[in-house]
Amino acid sequence: MEQIKIISSILGEIESQMYDKQLGPDSLAKQFYTNVSDLQKTFRILTGITIGEYIRFRRLSNAAMSLRMKHLSILEAALDACFETPEAFSKAFKRFHGISPREARQSTDTGETRYFGPMHIKFSVESSAPLAFKMAYLPSLYFVGKSISVSNETSQYEQVIQNFWEHQTLNGSLAYLEQHFQAIAFAGISLPGGQETFIYGVGILTTEPVAAGREWDVVPCMDGSWVQFEVGGETDEDFSRTRNRVLSEWLLVSDHSISLLPEIEYYPLGESESSEIWFPLTSRFKQKG
Question: Which residues form the HTH araC/xylS-type domain (predicted)?
C-alpha cells in the first residue's frame, strides 16, 4: 500500500515541479526517501511508462499548447520544456506529436497535436480469482548466469529481455548451467541499476555456494523472508499480469511491505511445480515453528 501511495503523491509532485530542470527519478526518490530502482519499477508497472517518459510526455504536451496559445518562439518553448537546445526539442516534439514545433505554432487545429494529460491513481475493488502466494524464510541462494544492463524505456526492455532469454537458451548456456551446477530452478533476476536502467540476469538458482568467476555472473540472494506468488504460466504476459496484480491488489490489503528489487522469476525444473515471482519482504515475518 505504501508504494502505491508514494506513486500517487509523486504524480502530483511532478505537476508542481514540471518546469524544474532537476526533476527526475533521482530527485523524486530522495524527496520521498525511497530507492530509485524500486521507484522506477513501481511507477512503470502502475502507469505503463517510466518516470522519465511521463515527465517528457507531459512537457511536450504542454509545449504544443504554449506554442499555439502563448505564441512562444521555438527557443522559448524548448527552454520552457527543459530541453538544452531547440534542435533536441524539435526532434522530440516531432517524434511525440507527428508534426514540427513550427507547424504546431502555425496551426489552429488542436487535433493535429497529441494531448497527454496528468495521470491519477484510482483505487477500485474488482472480483477476480485470488492471488496464490506463500511466505517463506529461505536460506542463502545463489543466482548463476549472465546479466545485461536494460533500459527502463517501456518500448525497449521487454523485447531486449525476451531476446536475451532466447540467446542464452539457443547458445546452450542454460543447459550447461543445469548440468554443471546443482540447479534447483531456472531463473530471471532483476537488480538495481542506474537512474534509467536496471540489471537483468538469465540463469539458474542453486543453494550451493559459487565463487564468482570470469565466465559467469554470480549474485548471492539474501537469506531472509520472501513472498512467492504463483504465476500460472511461463509467458511474459503471465508474469506481467501477476506483477501488476501484486501492486494493484495484494499490496492494497496486505499488512506486509515488499521490495520490488531484487525480483526473481522462478522457473521450476520439473512439471509438478508452478512458475513463481519472488519478492523480498521488507516488513517483519517470523518463521513458524
Answer: 8-107
